Model the fold of this input.
Amino acid sequence: MKVRKGSNGDIKEAAAPLEGEKKSRGKILTEYLLLTLGSMLIALEVHLFEIPNGFTIGGVSGIGIALGKLTGFSTSTIIVALNVLLLIIGFIFLGRSCGIRTIYCSMVYAGFLQVLEFIWPVNAPLTDEPMLELCCVIMITAVGSGLIFHFEATSGGTDIIAMILKKYTPLDVGKALLCVDFLVAITAFFVFDVEIGIISVVGVFIRGFLIDAVIESFNSSKYFTIITTKPEEIKKFILDDLSRGATVIKAEGAFTGEEKTILYTVCRRFEASRLRRYVHTVDPDAFVIITTSSEIIGSGFRHIQ
Done:
């Protein structure tokens, strides 16, 4: 379920408690720390698993591995060169905000990859189980990419093309990435062998769907419908303690004829448990419906850029 800020005043109030909300320095710092973590995770899995095994499950890393095998040039050098080209495209189509975050993530990713190649050279697979290593690639990439995509950024490379497709088509970012990286994965059949090619294609499909699942998990919120006889206490808690908005509607019980109040509000998952406990404390007889929302768009949540 998606709750959008639109012309309906009630919904707007429920989803947007603070107009003109701006990011604090703490939020910006947290955002860039998570972007750094995501970029380093992707660089780590490329260094430990993709390059030694020859997996080309898409992205500039996949192209870099294939070209590195064919030309003998350093994989990290090829990745940096391709990223520069795609960054220019990203600035043109995605705008300045996404472009700045993408440059930052690309620098962290490429820089950390080169550091790993220098201090921890890995010339062979860590195990003799390619499917096990593919699972590590998929899981680490899904978390790393999910963190980066969550903040409307990319790690560079074909992720930029996926974000452009997401912006201009109905595709989710994971599905868009799947379309782009599938073409890269096919090269593994020609550069390496059939086994690596099959593994790479399977990895692309699983990763694409898993990235969407991770992003949806990050974005999910809780939508509350609270039917109560003590609306003032609950409304005050929502406004003052959670700093969220609410929509209030007067209602009447169909069976008892008793006057009641319905409160609609949305909040983050960690806030939901606090609200649930408070409602139970103030009004144990309150009727509470809690729905998981995959995305909330409006002030205080996500914005369409």
